[in-house]
Amino acid sequence: MPVLGKSVFGSGAVPGAASKNIKKTLFVCLRDLLQFPPKIRPYKNLSHPLQFLVSQATMEAAEVSFSMPIRLLPEDIASRIAAGEVVERPASVIKELVENSLDAGATRIETETLEGGHKLLRVRDDGEGIAAAEVALAFRRHATSKLATAADLFNILTLGFRGEALASIASVSQLSCNTRHVAEVAGTRLRIAGGEILSQSPVGWPKGTEICVEELFYNVPARRKFLQSPRTERRHIDGFLTRYAIAYPHVAFTVVHDGQEMLRTSGNGVQREALQQVYGLELGASLLELAPKWASGEGLRVRGYTGDVTTHRSNRGYITLFVNGRWIEDMRITYAVIQAYHTLLPVNRYPIAFLLLEMPGEEVDVNVHPAKTEVRFRDPDAVFRTVQRAVRATVVSEAPIAAAWQPDSSSRSNLEAPQATTPAPERQATQNALWVELASLRPAPQLAPRGETAPTPGPQQTPSSERSSRIAPGIKLPPLRVIGQAATTFIIAEGPDGLYLIDQHAAHERVLYEQLLTAWSEGGVPAQPLLEPVSVQLSAEDAARIEEHLPALAELGLTVEPFGPNSFLVRSVPATLKHLAPQDLLADIAAAELDRSPIREGLEAQMVRRICKRAAIKAGQTLSREEMEALIHGLEQCLSPRTCPHGRPTVLQISVEQLALQFERT
C-alpha cells in the first residue's frame, strides 16, 4: 500500500489539523469498503482505491473539526455583540447620552460632533452628576440607578433603565468621562478604550457630566465601514436632537457640528418658541395646539401641536410621537394621526404633528426593544381613539376649510380602527354628485380602449391598478378637442375614438416633468432670478438634506445659498415655475428623502418629480378654456402621456361603442 503523501494527494499532503482524524477513520473506512462486492465497489471508477478511502476520511474529519463545544463568550465579545443592538450609528450614541442627561435633571445640554460623529461625539450637561465611587461602576453592563426590584419594570418613568448604553458605547470607542456629583467638591475623570478602564483620577469640574466618545467602532472595522457620510450621520443626529429640544422646552439645547453652531434653544419652558426655533418662525407659528377638552380620556392625556389642512408634507416623517417623555416610533398611532385628516388632505400628503402622550407607567411597556424606540400599550385601541379624536377635533374646530365636512355615524365608526382605506381624492370632491357618477365608471369592464381587452380584476387588485391596466403607458394621445371641466378636477375632451377624462393635476405633473428633464438633459434648466433673494428657514434635519443636494438644485434652475444655521437664500427658481413659493418648494424637496429611495433613478429625476408635484395645477382649481387647451396640447407632446411621474393614470378613455352600449343603441 502506498504511503499517505504525494502519491495519493498529488501536489500536497494532508493538512496537519485533519491528519490525525484521517488516521483514526482510515481503517474504519477500509473495513466498510471491503464489504462491497467487487463489481459495485465505489472506487471502481477512481484511479486508485486509496483515493476513495482518503476522500471519505477527509470528509468525516472535516465534520469532526467543525463541531464546536458550547462555551461562554468572553466578556469583550459579548459587549461588542450587545453594542450592536444599542449603538447602530453616531445618532444612537447621542440619543443614549442625552437621555441620561435628561434623567439626571439637566437644564442645559450641549452636544458637539466632528465629521458627523466619526471622530468625536461630546455631550455635556449640568445635571446632578455621578458620584466618584460609582463612576467606574456606571460603565459596567446592566449597571443602573433607575431600577431596584423586578416590580419597577412595570412602572418605568425614566428614559434610560437597562444599564446597557454606557457599557456598549465604551466597548466600541475611546471614551472619557468628566463628572462631579452635586454633593461632592471634586470631580472625577475616567478614561476607557474598548471597554477597558485605562485611568481614573480626580479633577476639578463643575456640577454635571461630560462624556466624549472618540473613534466610534475603531475596534469593529466591519461596523465602521457601514457608517454613512459625515453629512448623512449629522442629519440623523439633528433629527433626534430637534425632537427632544421641542419635547423638553425647559432644557436649553445647543448643537455644534464641526465648530459651527446649528441649533440653540432658550430653555424658557415655552413649547411654541421651541417649535419656532426648530421649524422656523412661519411653520412653528402656524401649527395648531391640541384642544385640551378633546385630548384626554381613559387615563391618557395628549398634548402637542398639529398642522392645519394647508400644512402638509410628502411623507410620514413629520409625525413625531412621545410617550411619557420618550420618543417612540409606532405605526398604529401614526396611522391614527393620518386618519384624523381623512378627506382633508390631498392624496399622498401627510400632516405635521408633534404629540406628547402622558399615561400611567403601568399602562405602557417600554422594555420591548434594546434601543427603547418601540413600546407596547396595555390598551392600544383606547390610545388610538384618543389620539385620533384629539387631532381631528382640533383640526376641524380650528381650520375653517375643514369644518364643512363631518363624518356620518358609519364613517365615524370606521375611523376608530386602523383599517386599510383607499386614498381620498385631492379635495372634498367626494361630496360632489358629479364626482360620484364619474367614480362609478371605474369598475366598468367595458371601459377599455378600442382594441384592448379589459383584464378581469383579481381579488387583490385595487381600483387604481384597474384603471392603469386599461391604458398602456407610453402610447401617445391622439389630437383632442376640449369640451369642458368636470368637478373642477377633470378635463373632458373628445378624440377620434370617444371621450377622454383627464386628471388635470396628474396631466400637468407629466407635462412639467418631461419639460424640466428635457431642459436639464440639454444643458440646464432656464432660471428666473428673483428681484430680491428669499430667506428660507428649515429644521436642522431638513437643512442638512438641502445642503447635500445644492449642486443638483443649481442644475435644475434653483439657486440656493447657505445663509446661517439652517437658513438659505433662494436667488432663482426654474423659469417655468416662477410662481412657486421657495419655502414650500425647499420643504418638499427636503421631505423627499432622496438618499433613501429604493429605486436607483437619477437624483435629478427624483428632484424634478418632487418639484412637479408642488408646481402642478391642483384638483379643485377652475381652468379657462385656453388653459385647458394648453394643458391638453402639452400632454399630447409627452412621450408617456398616460401616467404621471408617480405612476398614477392621467387619462380615462370611453370609446364610442361603449357609449352607445350604455345608451342601449344597437
Description:
The protein has 23 helices and 25 strands. The strands form six sheets. It has an eight-stranded mixed sheet, with helices on one face. Strand 10 (296-297) and strand 11 (300-306) form a beta hairpin. The relative contact order is 0.08. Mean pLDDT is 76; it is low at 1-15, 39-47, 61-66, 400-474 and 595-601.
SSE layout and pairings?
Elements: H1 6-9, H2 16-34, H3 49-66, H4 75-86, H5 90-103, E1 108-114, E2 120-125, H6 135-138, H7 165-171, E3 174-180, E4 187-193, E5 196-203, E6 208-214, H8 221-224, H9 230-247, E7 252-257, E8 260-264, H10 271-279, H11 281-286, E9 288-289, E10 296-297, E11 300-306, E12 312-313, E13 319-323, E14 326-328, H12 331-340, E15 350-351, E16 353-358, E17 364-365, E18 376-377, H13 380-398, H14 409-414, H15 433-439, H16 463-470, E19 481-486, E20 490-495, E21 498-503, H17 504-521, E22 527-537, H18 540-548, H19 550-555, E23 559-562, E24 567-574, H20 582-591, H21 603-615, H22 625-636, E25 651-655, H23 656-662
Helix pairs in contact: 2-3, 4-7, 5-9, 9-10, 9-18, 12-13, 17-21, 17-22, 18-20, 20-21
